[in-house]
């Protein structure tokens, strides 16, 4: 005989001819049938929620290699330990949105100025209100054949992507500099 939860009598309103159950007599818990039913329902919901999250829907997903435009390879971890086994001391950005704060290392110049879509620029760009032309090319030789790696500073991660930029105009006559895109 099936009953709904509302039809199950409370423990203090049992019929006079009711006898206590023998099914859970060896179990050392306090509470009644409703407590057991609530525990079973909560357990089923927990198992169901865990099954939904098997693919990482609600949690963190495993890291995947970050690859940028034009096949630029990036690290899937937040260091460049192969090239810098002891890590490195971050250096202040020299241009862009975060001038004066440190996250990346190396290069003549570092900053968001050298980024396009989060990776080092690739192509011709104009700086200083169009008076300086910069021809940028990403490089793959700075971090064990990778173009970029992620670096963590104060709990925030940044992508440091390497490139060479050749400048013309405004006193530059084809000088090439190692530049770092900080994203």
List keywords for this structure.
183 residues, mainly beta, 2 domains, two-stranded antiparallel ribbon, 1 helix, 8 strands, 27% strand, rod-shaped
Task: Note down, in words, how this protein is organized.
The chain has 183 residues and is mainly beta. It has one helix and eight strands; from the N terminus they run H-E-E-E-E-E-E-E-E. The protein has two domains: 5-52, no CATH class; 69-182, no CATH class. The protein is 11% helix and 27% strand.
Quick overview of this protein structure:
The chain is mainly β.
What value does the Rg take, in angstroms? 31 Å
Structural class by sheet pairing and helices: mainly beta
Helix count, DSSP H or I runs of 4 or more residues: 1
Can you tell me the overall shape?
A: rod-shaped
Report the average pLDDT across residues. 77
Low-confidence stretches: 58-64
Order of helix and strand elements from N to C terminus: HEEEEEEEE
- Classify the beta-strand content into a percent band: 25-35%
* Residue share in helix: 10-25%
Summarize the SSE layout with pairings:
Layout: H1 33-52, E1 109-111, E2 115-116, E3 119-120, E4 123-127, E5 132-138, E6 148-153, E7 156-169, E8 172-182
Parallel strand pairs: 1-8
Antiparallel strand pairs: 2-3, 4-5, 5-7, 6-7, 7-8
């Amino acid at each position: 005989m099936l009953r709904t939860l509302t039809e199950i009598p409370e423990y203090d309103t049992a019929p006079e001819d009711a006898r206590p159950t023998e099914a859970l007599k060896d179990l050392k818990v306090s509470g009644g049938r409703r407590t057991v039913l609530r525990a079973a329902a909560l357990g089923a919901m927990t198992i169901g929620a865990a099954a939904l999250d098997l693919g990482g829907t609600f949690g963190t997903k495993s890291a995947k290699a970050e690859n940028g435009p034009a096949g630029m390879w990036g690290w899937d971890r937040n260091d460049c330990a192969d090239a810098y086994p002891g890590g490195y001391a971050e250096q202040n950005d020299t241009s862009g949105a975060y001038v004066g704060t440190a996250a990346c290392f190396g290069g003549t110049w570092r900053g968001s100025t050298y980024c396009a879509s989060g990776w080092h620029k690739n192509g011709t760009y104009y700086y200083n209100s169009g008076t300086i032309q910069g021809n940028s090319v990403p490089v793959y030789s700075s971090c064990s054949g990778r173009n970029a790696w992620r670096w963590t500073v104060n709990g925030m991660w940044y992508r440091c992507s390497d490139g060479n930029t050749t400048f013309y105009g405004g006193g530059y006559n084809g000088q090439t500099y190692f530049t770092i895109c900080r994203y």
